[in-house]
Design a protein that fits this description.
The complex is a heterodimer of chains A (118) and B (388). With 118 residues, chain A is an all-beta fold. Chain A has no helices and eight strands. The two termini of chain A are 20 Å apart. In chain B, the strands form two sheets. Chain B has a ten-stranded mixed β-sheet, with helices on both faces. Chain B has a two-stranded antiparallel ribbon with strand order 5-6. Classes of the chains: A mainly beta (118), B alpha/beta (388). The interface between A and B is medium-sized, with 31 and 35 residues.
Chain lengths: 118, 388
């Protein structure tokens, strides 16, 4: 299955945002956005292994900060199939999963995961 | 603009107060501040209450300030709750200062209160992680130790900061906290104890992280004219600056908000970083204190690790950082923290800090950051106090 994260691109100035939004903070136009699929491949700026998590997470889990070519930075859980030792600063990562989940009040949100490219 | 003086301060011991709620914690801190200020509760004209997690880590969701203030006979006046995540207390003090510096009021109180000990570890980690853009950060697995672990790894990689230097921050702050009767931990730690403590978010370990705490702190500010008849040791607010993030260019190794707010605070106080004798900074994690040395201008970017290693942050160092023990040892009841920093600086500048007294302390700086989202701190608050 092909996963994608979709943001907004301002039709006036070309600035790309994620998540989607109505007002362009760059040129202040409103409702002037088109959908823009973000790159699936990004760079791992830094990572950690969380041994304490929030409810709903199963520690230990790998977690990172990812920069996409669009200049967007995303936090993401990282799928690591082998040892956590394979994670390296600056390595390429790929979008591996996107799922719609609901919080305890029933509000929907997207949950995404990236994986390292060896 | 009026000249503003901190007239009185007071705080509870920080720690686990299983037998007290937010009302009782606030009551004690406010009472102590009123007595220290040498005024009557009826002299206070306006109040601000810093409280971040009430309603999440306990069930007292609203009117926290009014509840605590009324216990000490402060009523009828305007009371406003201030929420800015971990900087809530600092921002309550900032608002109290604005109300007096502007000439609108003569006497104002800032109180900060938090009760966290009833929550399970995962619950309070989540309560703090909710001080972000929840769906794109908290819900993706963000935690504050996790975020600052990303920072630590990057700082270590870029500047050669070491595991041992992180531990040195915790060792120093626990050494200071052991001399502070209000501290949650009054226990000296060894480097090995910190470096071998349980992993929380690699590379940050348990003793790199501040604890979950209960507590309250209060500070009363007034015009110089009012202070004249009440104290012969006035402590002046030289400047107070609150800034928020730019959310444009994320960085892991610089807290740009701190850097920007500090420059403005030094300029408004007409001083330079070298003039600061002591600073109470937001050491939620050891790596944070190392960033603050750099971003507050006490050393160059990337030199924070060396700054602690060379002893420059010690009570008798170049600038005493967190003589109170900081968040790491004194504790971090979120809404109270910023005002407890003000308490410490006032005691230091009055030379009332006992065994942890910084010699010849004349100028002190309080620094707090609150929340984190889209690559930036939500709130950065800096207040500079001076004794002359």
């Amino acid at each position: 299955m092909e996963f994608v994260l979709t943001g907004s691109k301002c039709k006036s100035c070309g600035k790309i945002f994620f998540p989607k939004k109505r007002v362009c903070t760059n040129c202040l136009s409103i409702d002037n956005m088109e959908s823009e699929n973000l790159s699936k491949r990004g760079k791992l700026i830094s990572y950690t292994i969380n041994y304490v998590g929030t409810p709903g997470f199963d520690p230990p889990y790998a977690f990172g900060y990812i920069e996409l070519p669009e200049g967007i930075w995303l936090y993401s859980e990282l799928i690591v199939k082998g040892s956590f030792d394979e994670l390296k600063l600056g390595m390429d990562v790929n979008l591996a999963e996107v799922e719609t989940q609901k919080d305890k009040y029933g509000e929907a949100y997207l949950k995404w995961k990236f994986e390292p490219l060896s | 603009m009026k000249d503003v003086v901190v007239l009185g301060v007071g705080m509870t011991e920080f720690g686990k107060h299983y037998d007290k709620g937010v009302k009782e914690l606030g009551e004690e801190a406010i009472y102590k501040a009123i007595k220290d200020a040498n005024i009557d509760s009826k002299d206070i004209q306006v109040a601000y209450c810093g409280s971040a997690l009430a309603g999440i880590t306990n069930r007292q969701a609203g009117v926290v300030g009014q509840l605590a203030l009324k216990e000490v006979g402060i009523n009828k006046i305007p009371v406003t709750r201030v929420e800015n995540a971990c900087a809530s207390g600092s921002c309550a003090f900032h608002e109290a200062w604005i109300s007096v510096v502007s000439g609108l009021y003569d006497v104002a109180i800032a109180v900060g209160i938090e009760k966290m000990s009833g929550a399970k570890t995962s619950e309070f980690v989540e309560a703090l992680a909710m001080q972000t853009d929840v769906q794109v950060e908290c819900d993706q697995g963000y935690t504050f130790p996790g975020h600052f672990a990303l920072v630590a790894r990057k700082h270590m990689h870029e500047f050669g900061t070491t595991r041992e230097q992180l531990s040195m921050v915790s060792v120093k702050n626990h050494k200071n906290g052991a001399k502070n009767p209000n501290s949650q931990y009054k226990k000296v730690l060894s480097l090995d104890e910190v470096s071998n403590s349980r992993m929380i978010s690699d590379p940050l370990r348990l003793l790199d992280c501040c604890p979950n705490s209960d507590g309250a702190a209060a500070a009363i500010v007034a015009t110089k004219e009012i202070a004249k008849s009440l104290t012969n040791k006035p402590i002046y607010v030289a400047s107070s600056v609150l800034a928020s993030g730019s959310y444009l260019k994320p960085s892991l190794v610089t807290l740009e908000v701190t850097e920007r707010a500090a420059k403005e605070a030094y300029q408004k106080a007409n001083i330079r970083p070298e003039d600061i004798d002591l600073a109470e900074v937001h050491d939620a994690f050891t790596i944070n204190e190392i960033l603050h040395y750099e971003d507050l201008g006490f050393c160059k970017k990337g030199y924070g690790g060396r700054f602690i290693e060379e002893g420059q942050a010690e009570i008798d160092g170049k600038v005493a950082i967190n003589p109170s023990g900081g968040l790491l040892s004194k504790g971090h009841p979120v809404g109270a923290t910023g005002i407890a920093q003000i308490c410490e600086i006032v005691w230091q500048l009055r030379e009332e800090a006992g065994d942890r007294q910084v010699a010849n302390a004349r100028i002190g700086l309080a620094h707090c950051t609150g929340g984190f989202t889209h690559g930036d701190i939500g709130a950065g608050c800096i207040t500079i106090l001076r004794s002359n």
